[in-house]
Design brief:
The complex is a heterodimer of chains A (about 290) and B (about 290).
Chain A lengths: L6 H28 L3 H7 L11 H6 L5 H32 L6 H13 L4 H11 L17 H14 L2 H9 L4 H12 L1 H17 L2 H6 L8 H10 L11 H6 L3 H34 L3
Chain B lengths: L2 H16 L6 E2 L10 E2 L3 H8 L2 H33 L3 H12 L6 H12 L5 H8 L11 H29 L3 H9 L4 H12 L1 H14 L9 H5 L8 H4 L2 H12 L2 H29 L7
Antiparallel strand pairs in B: 1-2
The chains are: A mainly alpha (about 290), B mainly alpha (about 290).
Pfam families (chain A): BPD_transp_1
Subcellular location (chain A): Cell membrane
Protein name (chain A): Carbohydrate ABC transporter permease
């Protein structure tokens, strides 16, 4: 079907194109600064296109013992472990809340909903994690606080109640399958849409989390990418930690190295996004539209 | 199967709720919650005497009002307009580009913004220089931030809201539009008379969610207020909100009792806001209200 290009449609399209460009330009500028020569930035400021192309910044921040590689490793581990554990605990929890024969499930459901309406606030939470659970300055604090989210549990519970047919679970039970076995072999494979979307959002959350590290992490070896990025913004010295002489420090790219770190930290999301964006859109609607 | 999740929410969400007693203590990190000195309402007395309280409350409420009205309104318009684009490929492309900023962290956004607003190197100042305007010190004039922060919020969230609205529009039966066309309604009338009323339930859910976020200390989306202005003290009159205030007083002063009192105050303000918005929604449509 070929549609005629009408004037209002043309206007609409150009409007959206302008808006999209506005959305993307900032990212593009950061990329182009990171690819510029430090001297040219120093002389003429940030530009839309690199005046003098150079990969120095990347060579500098990716050299052997740079803090960025370490932060990358920490972030990847936290994201992976956190997401997997989050999915495991939340789906088990949500599944048991969705089964009608579970005792007290209404009370527990209420407990979950109530978390959405009230919480103790930042300070008691901080004290609990640092003083009573002794998680401060450990890698665990980076994922343990977010292993269950009430919203995700509610979304999963709705999914399980509405899309997993009761009869499948009953027939499995007649065939002698235990509860846990049924969950693993029947329910989970049928729930890939909800697991995929919640998994994606959790992974992005862990990847982008700067706040937990800012509160609990003092040991430079446990910095996450986002927290490192935040520290660099305030203090470029982080990148220069391994420079020995002041003279070498002068020659090092500052501004461009900053921006290159930023590019590297967004990189994985940007690369994965085209493949994942369908799931993101689905996941959003899964969460927002009441069923 | 419920056990891990249940234990988790009790420890992580319900124990901190008991921790609000810290607000009434002169908390001593060594003695812990149970042995610290009980001081009654002293913390609150100090809080209500400080000048900061009015400012942070005012900023929190005004910004959230701007965000909710502007953010949701604009997303609704964008969702309707995208739906009008005949070309499905283009419409999909716009949606994915608009959604992209939603996946970036506020720390990254800080970098993006800095490339525009930096005093000596920023794009905006060099653009102004072309017109012979003096460079502006964006990071030291609070007034501008009343526009920059909402712009940041819109940049990040409009894609997310409009994807949700677009899903809602897709769910509206085409018969309504056909009937309207028969009656001679134009596109604009259709949007006003059909699309917007049909989207009311989603809009209300989003409104309540956003209102609820205000008292979501630590877990709400306040990274923007903390990161975008780069911690510039001069800007506090326009950028300090309850969350950043609590976080700063915890990080820098380590006055647990005091910041806990602010947290409790925030929970109360937030609760009142949810009650008010719920009341307004009840006036409009009883069924959509929370309670």
């Amino acid at each position: 079907m070929i549609k005629r290009i009408t004037f209002p449609n043309f206007l609409l399209n150009s409007m959206f194109m302008v808006y999209c460009v506005l959305c993307l330009i900032p990212l593009f500028v950061v990329l182009s600064v990171s690819l510029s020569d430090e001297q040219s930035i120093f002389q003429s400021g940030y530009k839309l296109l690199p005046m003098k192309f150079s990969l120095d910044a990347y060579a500098f921040i990716l050299n052997g013992n740079s803090p960025i590689l370490r932060a990358y490793a920490v972030t990847i581990i936290v994201t992976l472990v956190g997401t997997v554990l989050h999915l495991m605990i939340s789906s088990l929890f949500a599944y048991s809340l969705s089964r009608k024969e579970v005792k007290y499930r209404n009370i527990v459901s209420f407990l979950v909903v109530f978390c959405l309406l009230f919480n103790g606030g930042l300070v008691p939470w901080y004290i609990l994690l640092s003083k009573y659970l002794h998680l401060k300055d450990t890698v665990f604090v980076l994922f343990i606080p977010y292993l269950v989210s009430s919203v995700n549990v509610l979304i999963m519970r709705n999914f399980f109640t509405h899309t997993i047919p009761e009869s499948i679970i009953e027939s499995a039970r007649i065939d002698g399958s235990g509860e846990f076995h049924t969950f693993l072999k029947l329910v989970l494979p049928l729930s890939t849409p909800v697991l995929a979307t919640i998994g994606l959002f959790t992974a992005v959350f862990y990847w982008n989390d700067w706040f937990t590290a800012a509160l609990f992490i003092e040991n430079g070896k446990l910095y996450t990418l986002q927290f490192l990025l935040q520290s660099i913004m305030n203090n470029i010295a982080f990148l220069q930690a391994n420079s020995l002489t002041a003279k070498a420090a002068l020659a090092q790219p500052d501004e461009t190295a900053r921006m290159a770190t930023c590019v590297l930290s967004v990189g994985p999301i940007m690369l994965a996004y085209p493949f994942l964006q369908k799931y993101f859109a689905k996941g959003l609607t899964l969460g927002a539209v009441k069923s | 199967m419920m056990l891990p999740g249940l234990l988790y929410i009790i420890v992580m969400f319900y124990l901190p709720m008991l921790g609000v007693v810290i607000a009434f203590e002169q908390y001593n990190p060594i003695k812990g919650i149970f042995k610290s000195k009980w001081v009654g309402f002293t913390n609150f007395k100090f809080l209500f005497q400080s000048d900061a309280l009015f400012q942070i409350t005012f900023n929190t409420i005004v910004y959230n009002l701007i965000f909710i009205i502007l953010g949701i309104g604009l997303s609704l318009v964008i969702a309707i307009l995208i739906n009008e684009i005949g070309n499905r490929f283009l419409a999909g492309a716009y949606k994915s580009i608009l959604l992209l900023p939603f996946l970036l962290s506020w720390v990254v956004a800080e970098y993006l913004l800095f490339t525009f607003l930096s005093m000596d190197k920023g794009l905006l100042n060099s653009l102004l220089a072309q017109f012979g305007v003096e460079p502006v010190q964006w990071y030291s004039e609070p007034f501008y931030w009343w526009f920059i922060l909402p712009a940041g919020y819109i940049w990040k969230n409009v894609g997310y809201f409009s994807v949700i609205f677009a899903a809602g529009i897709a769910g509206i039966s085409t018969e309504y539009y056909e009937a309207a066309k028969m009656d001679g309604a134009n596109k604009f009338q259709q949007a006003i008379k059909i699309t917007i009323p049909m989207l009311a339930p989603i809009t209300i859910t989003l409104l309540l969610l956003q209102a609820g976020k205000i008292f979501y200390a630590a877990f709400g989306d306040w990274g923007m207020f903390y990161n975008l202005p780069k911690e510039s003290g001069v800007l506090f009159s326009a950028t300090n909100v309850i969350d950043t205030y609590v976080y700063r007083s915890l990080k820098s002063m380590s006055d647990f009792g005091m910041s806990s009192a602010v947290g409790l105050y925030q929970a109360c303000v937030g609760f009142i806001l949810v009650l008010v918005s719920n009341f307004l929604i009840r006036l409009y449509d009883r069924d959509s209200a929370l309670f």
